What does this fold into?
Amino acid sequence: NAGVTQTPKFQVLKTGQSMTLQCAQDMNHEYMSWYRQDPGMGLRLIHYSVGAGITDQGEVPNGYNVSRSTTEDFPLRLLSAAPSQTSVYFCASKEGVGELFFGEGSRLTVL
Amino acid sequence: SQQGEEDPQALSIQEGENATMNCSYKTSINNLQWYRQNSGRGLVHLILIRSNEREKHSGRLRVTLDTSKKSSSLLITASRAADTASYFCATAFSGNTGKLIFGQGTTLQVKP
It folds into this structure.
């Protein structure tokens, strides 16, 4: 099993550009989520999904869109990137109330 | 604001000593989890303690939960240089066990 796979690992954008961070899991987990990690801020929840077709907002959803058309995939879209979105992004998945399995992260820089 | 608050923010100890990290939270929880993150990597799950449990052990790890004080602690005994990492607590709310909210973390340095 690959677990949780995130792409790309690194990305540089210019302000106003759009992009999609991809996340895929092969564990058949119903729950998937996106976090961002900034120095001194820990991890903050952006969006999460409890199953295909269902998404909900986390702590810091503004500027990000998500969709969940399949159990396996949970892409995160930045429609118009801003320097404040420079961060490390983590995708994670779990089953029920259990532990989260994390991807290795995507480091995004917005100039 | 974040659900979990951790202290200390940073901890530096000698190999062989014990390390204790604390986590406080604000609302009722279903469970509380601890994670570890090595520099530049994703987080790895360490231990989960349910709201009806008071203590849990896993190897050199001991976690306690006090729901009346809304707090938890993680004890790492006989620390090793390889334990150097950041440690995070995460809480699953009683009413919504889907999402996990993380604290700001404790950075642990274990000196050889």
Observations:
- The mean pLDDT of chain A is 95.
